[in-house]
Design brief:
heterotrimer; A alpha+beta; B alpha+beta; C alpha/beta; A: alpha+beta; Ubiquitin-like (UB roll); Alpha-Beta Plaits; 6 helices; 9 strands; 15% strand; B: alpha+beta; Cytochrome-c3 Hydrogenase, chain B; 2 domains; five-stranded antiparallel β-sheet; 16 strands; 40% helix
Chain lengths: 240, 479, 152
């Protein structure tokens, strides 16, 4: 495997050829915040939290979908980037109706954890308070609450790429997008859903939850992606 | 044109509540009103949420009695699931509730009412406060703090948090008790018994100086509260009983889900707090107090046949001697009833913890939606609390009706302050003693109006005497 | 050790300036002789925190309804006097709490109160422009106060 050299925040490091900037950063001990990215699912560069500055590039680049090149000089935590990341989180908070105090994912929510890490304690943007489709608890086990969705599509990718069912999808564009089930029907009436629960486990917020969960009770487990992928790609089935 | 005297206490946010005293043309008091001007819309924004999220949402109605709202809510949830929860879960919920009684009643008695009760209404206002209390009764003050803290601590031990916990859930509770936690609770109880003994002794000695108040606060009304199936004192479950002023049984035991046949809510345009009344004695008529009933500590001791623990039963017997042998009709004795309930709570916690079964770890039943309606009724420290939910087949809330404890007492509180104003207001002049008594008349019910801001500059108590042409001829201010 | 208690309701706009100031002071750090507590309202059991063995003084941080702004709007006053218990609320005043604390520790506890005037106490997060300004002034004032108090 060939290795390339990159400079991250003024420090030289190396990464395997073909690695993304995100992988290069993490392998060199530089942590970048992510929400839509999840090891084991195709990266899509949707949440914009992993934006970095690359010398010579005219715009900021999402690290999760940009391939690291030999000799790249990368800045990950400039004042501008930190400001943008905070702003991105504030926009996410203002977009739907996030009420942490009574949320099932309180304590395990990735959005909230990132906000705490980046010092976002309120949004400077006007809350949009949108009217959203009703909560769907028609499914035998899972519930869907659009109020808490950040459109990261992790559920959709897990359903399609790992389970292979493609029950979940997205309708609408931009701020109007919504997660839908099959041909826009209730979850309980879906014939494609295998009830595997992968979507619930990969959801970073309280959008998807086990029915019956009460405040701060959801705990999500994403480790299964690693061993499923390991088994499929390397044929080594290990739960460890 | 009638004259109005207005007392505006409480907070700076336009006041969450204020008192107006209306005079007729002859200068006599025609009526007094307690206005509650805070509107919170919980019944609206809960619609559309899954029922199992409701305990987490509704316990935020209040920082003083979140435990009661949580319990009423999980019981409504149990009813929607149609389950009988594991017996140990029920016992743990009961301990949770009794601990809430200890902290809430201790706050009401030791910290809010004790200066009035132990120092007297006509005590120098400069020291008729905690400072005066501490000077005269340092031991009571010190123990009062620790008793309230103990109630909070038991709740924290059970639920990991003393307010806004998410421990009680539809179907049971989340975590069981363990031996270590049980021992921690048991170790606190002896001091609690000692404190409550002292408080009872002091309170009973004070009655002699309150002969006037005892009669002013005395009026006939119905009483309502939960009782066990055997007719005993009950705080968590059971049947809703209504009795008359003389102790007659009006309704011996109404099943929770039939409460609407007996309780109806009226509204007045001058208060956001609704006016529930006993429907069979309706129609609603405030000036005649039609259907007026009282809830809370006094009512619970009046409706039950017995308490069910040795020391509380002994106290109950002497309590009843203050009335006709069965029923005590003076609202002044809410305080005494509160102390008896703390004693009862301590005895019940001790008794329940004594059985090793309490350490069992099967504490949660699982079920989906099996009923489209769920009614959860508990006795909160201030009285009967009702959470009434309707859901669709997927468990999504379609309708919520909450009847809060303070609401049931609304008619009675208005009646009490009217009585006090009539007795103590002479002409247009407001005296310190009259003000104290109006305040105390409200405080006797320990109403919870969910105040939510606390900046310095609590509005002074203002009383305005307004002439028929609307101009202020006299204004009193203090505090 | 100086105990700083910031109290108020951050969901009622300017009422949250006490907790906001407490947060700023806690974030500033750098001193091991400060303990910061943030609460929505003052409840009796806080007396036990005030009476902790290592606490030698207390400063309450609160909003006020005076509505003033400018240089001298923010003041730090020694605490004195006690008002009657609240009629309909279930919270305490700093002076009442102090009384209980002094009872528990059996000695006087030097105490001050800093008030930050506000104008908007409606529902919602975030402070009014006027309270923001007063908050900044309050922060500066506390820093001066802290320097002084260590000299004593």
């Amino acid at each position: 495997m060939s290795v390339i050299t990159v400079t991250i925040n003024g420090i030289e490091g190396s990464a395997p050829a073909g690695a993304t900037l995100l992988e290069a950063c993490r392998q060199n001990g530089v942590e970048l915040p992510t929400l839509c990215h999840l090891e084991g699912l195709t990266p899509i560069g949707a949440c914009r939290l992993c934006l970095v500055q690359v010398e010579g590039a005219r715009r900021l680049l999402p690290a999760c979908v940009t391939e690291a090149q030999e000799g790249m000089i990368i800045q990950t935590h400039t004042e501008k980037l930190v400001k943008y990341r905070k702003m991105t989180l504030e926009l996410l908070l203002s977009e739907r109706n996030h009420i942490c105090s009574v949320c099932v994912a309180n304590g395990s929510c990735e959005l909230r954890t990132l906000c705490a890490q980046l010092g976002v304690d309120h949004s400077r943007f006007e809350y949009r308070c949108p009217d959203l489709p009703p909560i769907d608890t028609s499914h035998e086990r899972n519930g869907l609450d659009h109020n808490r969705c950040i459109s990261c599509t992790r559920c959709i990718r897990a359903c399609d790429q790992v389970e292979g069912a493609h029950t979940l999808d997205m309708e609408g564009r931009g701020i109007e997008n919504r997660v839908i089930i099959d041909m826009h029907q209730t979850w309980g009436s879906s014939r494609t859903c295998t009830k595997c629960g992968k979507c619930v486990n990969v959801c970073p917020t309280g959008t998807l939850f086990w029915k019956g969960s009460t405040v701060a009770e959801m705990e999500k487990e994403v480790g299964f992606l690693q061993w499923i992928r390991g088994g499929r790609e390397k044929k080594t089935w290990s739960y460890l | 044109m009638a004259t109005m005297l207005r007392i505006e206490p409480v907070t700076r946010i336009e006041g969450h509540a204020k008192v107006s005293i209306y005079l007729d043309d002859s200068g006599a008091v025609s009526e007094a009103r307690l206005h509650v001007v805070e509107f919170r819309a919980f019944e609206k924004f809960c619609v559309g949420r899954p029922f199992y999220e409701m305990p987490g949402i509704t316990n935020r109605i209040c920082g003083i009695c979140p435990t009661s709202h949580a319990l009423a809510s999980v019981k409504a949830g149990d009813a929607i699931m149609g389950v009988a929860i594991p017996p140990v879960a029920e016992k743990l919920r009961r301990i949770f509730n009794w601990a809430q009684y200890i902290q809430s009643h201790a706050l009401s008695f030791f910290h809010l009412s004790a200066p009035d009760l132990l120092l007297g209404f006509d005590h120098d206002p400069a020291t008729r406060n905690v400072m005066g209390l501490i000077q005269k009764f340092p031991d009571v003050a010190r123990k009062g703090i620790r008793l309230r803290g103990m109630g909070q601590e038991i709740i924290r031990i059970l639920a990991d948090k003393s307010i806004h916990q998410a421990w009680a859930v539809p179907g049971g509770v989340r975590q069981p008790l363990n031996a270590e936690k049980r021992a921690a609770i048991q170790a606190m109880l002896p001091e609690g018994f000692e404190t409550i003994g002292l408080a009872l002794e002091l309170l009973k000695k004070s009655f002699a100086q309150f002969a006037d108040e005892l009669t002013t606060y005395d009026f006939p009304s119905l009483f309502a509260g939960l009782v066990t199936h055997e007719g005993g004192l009950e705080h968590y479950d059971g049947l809703l009983r209504f009795t008359g002023s003389d102790g007659t049984l009006i309704e011996a035991g109404v099943a929770n889900e039939r409460y609407r046949d007996y309780i109806e809510e009226a509204s007045e345009d001058w208060s956001y707090l609704k006016f529930p009344f006993f429907k069979p004695h309706g129609p609603y008529n405030r000036s005649e107090s039609a259907g007026m009933y009282r809830v809370g500590p006094l009512a619970r001791l009046n409706v039950c046949d017995f308490a069910g623990t040795p020391r509380a039963d002994e106290e109950l017997a002497s309590f009843r001697k203050l009335g006709n042998g069965r029923t005590v009709t003076s609202s002044f004795h809410y305080h005494y009833a509160r102390l008896i309930e703390i004693l009862f709570a301590l005895e019940k916690i001790a008794e329940t913890l004594d059985d090793d079964e309490i350490l069992d770890d099967w504490v949660r039943a699982e079920a989906g939606v099996n009923r489209l309606k769920g009614i959860g009724m508990v006795e909160a420290p201030r009285g009967t609390l009702i959470h009434d939910y309707s859901v669709d087949r997927n468990g999504i809330i379609t309708d919520v009706n909450l009847i809060v404890s303070t609401g049931h007492n609304n008619l009675a509180m208005n009646r009490t302050i009217t009585n006090i104003a009539r007795k103590y207001l002479q002409g247009d002049s407001v005296t310190e003693g009259m003000l104290n008594r109006v305040e105390h008349g409200i405080r006797a019910y320990d109403p919870c109006l969910s105040c939510s801001t606390h900046a310095v500059g609590r509005m002074p108590l203002v009383i305005r005497v307004i002439s028929p042409d609307g101009s202020v001829v006299q204004e009193f201010s203090r505090g | 050790m100086l105990l700083l208690i910031g109290y108020g309701n951050p969901l009622r706009r300017d009422d949250g300036s006490g907790p906001a100031l407490a947060g700023m002071l806690a974030a500033r750090g750098g001193r091991d002789d400060l303990r910061v507590i943030t609460v929505q309202q003052l409840v009796p059991e806080l007396a036990q925190d005030l009476a902790a063995a290592d606490i030698t003084a207390v400063l309450f941080l609160d909003a006020s309804v005076s509505g003033c702004s400018g240089e001298n709007a923010v003041s730090i006053q020694p605490l004195s006097g006690v008002s009657p218990s609240p009629v309909l609320g279930h919270h305490f005043s700093p002076a009442e709490l102090l009384c209980y604390a002094e009872l528990l520790r059996g000695a006087a506890l030097p105490a001050w109160q800093l008030t930050i005037p506000g104008i908007d106490f409606g529902y919602g997060e975030g402070l009014s422009a006027s309270a923001e300004k007063n908050l900044a002034a309050a922060f500066a004032k506390v820093l001066v106060f802290l320097r002084k108090i260590t000299l004593q």
